[in-house]
Each structure stands twice: as C-alpha cells, then as structure tokens.
C-alpha cells in the first residue's frame, strides 16, 4: 500500500522530517528559500497533506491546486493569519498550528530586546568595534533602568503571561490589557487589568503579544504614540502589522518614545524606509522561536498533526475542528 503524499514547503529540523518519512512519501522544497507562488501551486498538486510556513499564503487558489484528496495544511507556527481558514473549512481541509512549544523562546526574546534597547547593547557593541572606546565616561551610552519600573503587556495569553511572569524577578509593577482579564496571571504576578489608554500612559515598557486580526491591525499608531511617555520602550514579537510602522519611524525620529525592539515587521521582509537608520531601535529577523529546542518541537508537532489527520484522527491542534463534525457526533 502506497504512503500518503506530503509536501514540506521549506526544510525543517531533520528529526521531524525523519518522523514524517516513516508514515508518508515526503517532498521537500529543495531550495533554502521560500517557495515562489508558482512553485507552491505546482508542488501542492495531488498532495494529501502540506506542511507550510507562516510565509506561505494559503488561499482558495492553493486549495484548488492541491485537489480534493488533500486533508490537511499543517502550519509550522503558532499564528495562522497566512491561511484562509474559512476557505479550508468549506473544502473539509483541516488547518493546524504549533501552540505552546515556543512560548518560552518568544518571551525570552522579548526580554532580550527589552534589555538591548534599554541598555543600548547594539550601540555599545558597535562603539567598541569601531575603535571609539578610549576611556570610561560618566555620560557614555546612558540607558534606562528596568528594575522596579512599570511594565505594560498587551495581550496576556500564553506568551504574554509567560513574559509577565519573568518580570517578577525585576520587581516590576505589571499592567496588562486585552479582550478579558486573566485571573490566573493576576494571581501569579499581581498584575492589574486595565484599559489600553491607561496602560500606554503609565508604562515604562510596553510589550505586544496579540494575534493579528482586523481588531489588532494598527493597534499602535500615531494616537497611541502620543499617549506614551517619551521615555517608553515598545517591544513587538507578535505580528508586524499590529504597529503602524510609518508612525513608529516618525515617533522614534521625533523622540516621542525612547526606543523600540522589533522581531516582526509590517511588510516583512521589507522594512519601512528610515527604520534601519535609527539608533534607538533594535531589529532582528523574526527569530522569536529560533532556538534549537523550540524549532525541533515545532517540527515534531507539525508532523504529528499531519500524521493524525492522514490516519483519520482529529489532530490535537486543529484550528477548525468543525471539519470533523461528523466524527465528533459518533
């Protein structure tokens, strides 16, 4: 009996590929780059499952190209705003993601960005490399204190609350906002649930941890920057379009805020003109989950989702379980 056919749109950790190959006939993008649209549409044909990345736009055209036999698109990410979930549901295709396994890694990176901006680490590193450090000075590269300050968290879900728990070590006052209170988070950290405006005005550091949706696109723009302290630092490890990047560049240029740390961008991988010329922003290339351990766990989870779906089971991390409604009723 032949194995089901699966496409992997870009190479993932080898251990995950080896697991998938035990159950499936696997085709892997041979290039160390994102598939072009044409390559994707050609490669998904006649596949029973697809392991895709956040950088792949998965829409009706892709579903049509894949064919009626396709049962699952397994996203190698927590987010899934790259996928037309409603379109997949109409065709009976399961969509899955990889939640939980990258919470620590992403929260850790948010803290790394916060420290890097507050203490001007990249500037100091470049200062040394340029040979400009000739003597200690009491005014050299002055940054901002972190311990004892007010931390504002936008979105206290898995990653946001993980990030907030780590703030306890720095004796910080924690404010957070979102769609609803997180009482367990409050009990663990003493955090206070508040409205967006209060958080923006009171926080010394603001870290964003919300998914991208119509409600969160441009959650931070000109109006919000005007509310923030001119000593505030903004961190974003969620999704780029949550911030109006042009407004951010202007706010940084005009010193409306102290600085920013970004792992994600509005039109990734393109950056808004002027962003890279600013010293008061630290930018890294979407590496929130980029640890050996987290990327492997993501791969194993994405593969397990595919194996479960192709064996007729409901995947553990199915975003649209309604496609299995007939099975759930049994």
Report a brief summary of the structure.
This protein is 35% helix and 14% strand. It starts with a strand and ends with a helix. With 330 residues, it is an alpha/beta fold.
Report on the architecture of this protein:
A 7-stranded parallel β-sheet has the order 8-7-6-9-10-11-12, with helices on both faces. A 5-stranded parallel β-sheet has the order 2-1-3-4-5. The longest helix is centred in the last third of the chain and has 19 residues, at 292-310. It has 2 domains: 5-101 and 292-328, Rossmann fold (3-Layer(aba) Sandwich); 103-283, 3-Layer(aba) Sandwich (Rossmann fold), CATH 3.40.50.720. Strand 9, helix 10 (222-227) and strand 10 (233-236) form a beta-alpha-beta unit. The protein is of the alpha/beta class. It contains 13 helices and 12 strands.
CATH topology assignment of the largest domain: Rossmann fold
Helix content: 25-40%
What is the N-to-C succession of helices and strands? EHEHEHEHEHHEHEHEHEHEHEEHH
- What class, by secondary structure content? alpha/beta
Unreliably modeled segments:
none
The CATH H-level superfamily of the largest domain is NAD(P)-binding Rossmann-like Domain
**Number of helical stretches of at least 4 residues:** 13
Q: Judging by the overall fold, what is the CATH architecture of the largest domain?
A: 3-Layer(aba) Sandwich
For the termini, the CA-CA separation is: 28 Å
Report the portion of residues in β strands: 5-15%
This entry's quaternary arrangement is single chain
Gross morphology is globular
Task: Return Rg in Å.
Answer: 22 Å
Number of domains: 2
In the CATH scheme, the class of the largest domain would be: Alpha Beta
- Walk across the major sheet and give the strand order: 8-7-6-9-10-11-12
Q: Tell me about the largest β-sheet.
A: 7 strands, parallel
Count of beta strands: 12
